[in-house]
Write a structure and sequence with these properties.
This protein has 192 residues and is α+β, with helices and mostly antiparallel strands. The protein is built from five helices and eight strands; from the N terminus they run H-E-E-E-E-H-E-H-E-H-E-E-H. Strands 4-3-2-1-5-8-7-6 form an eight-stranded mixed beta sheet, with helices on both faces. Strand 6, helix 4 and strand 7 form a beta-alpha-beta unit. It binds zinc ion.
């Protein structure tokens, strides 16, 4: 077990909770280790507020085997995280949240525009993936396909997923997406 990686995940989970980017026990975070053989991912049904070291599970990415001290199982979106690592050799961390403003856009018919001041503008809108059931193989496939060309996508009627060369980059991107959504929502209200 790599305690340094686990500590980063624990710290990030608490940060995401403190920033109101998570609702209930939804959301998951992973880091690919330097060997590229193991992914550390939050356990299914964990509360980010009180997440501890034992809530992070080391998963062998070749056969998805894992060892868990407390009968915990890896996140239901493990296949999605795995798909991203298989398709993006530059990505070492994946973060999935249900932050309220960005998720509201995912549930609405409005597209989320990229805005100046929130990092590099790569297109007019944040890419969106059609709805597939959370935890399903279809969601894993379609979302990881979309993330081949994007560092962030909205999951229709679900939430947000971002990737980065490290966990800080992926987390900051989640904050950007939420910031964009909040600003765009307020702008829309002011223009009513
Ligand atoms: Zn989710």
């Amino acid at each position: 077990m790599d305690n340094n990686i686990i500590e980063k995940i624990v710290r990030t989970a608490h940060h995401i909770y403190d920033k109101d980017m998570i609702l209930g026990k939804a959301g998951n975070i992973s880091i690919l280790d330097d060997s590229g053989e193991y992914m550390y991912i939050t356990a299914s049904g964990t509360d980010f507020k009180s997440l501890v070291h034992d809530d992070v599970i080391k998963v062998n990415i070749n056969d998805l085997s894992y060892v868990s001290s407390k009968d915990k199982v890896p996140s239901m979106e493990t296949n999605l995280h795995l798909g991203v690592y298989q398709k993006r050799s530059d990505v070492k961390s994946v973060v999935h949240v249900h932050s309220p403003y960005a998720t509201a856009f995912a549930f609405s018919n409005k597209k989320l525009r990229q805005l100046e001041g929130f990092g590099e503008i790569t297109g007019e809108y944040i890419a969106e993936v059609d709805y597939y059931a959370p935890g399903s193989k279809k969601l894993a496939k379609h979302a990881s396909d979309a993330l081949k060309n994007e560092d962030s996508v909205l999951l229709k009627d679900h939430g947000v997923i971002t990737v980065g060369k490290d966990i800080d980059e992926a987390t900051l991107l989640c904050e950007y997406i939420e910031g964009i959504a909040k600003t765009q929502y307020i702008t829309h209200m002011l223009n009513l």
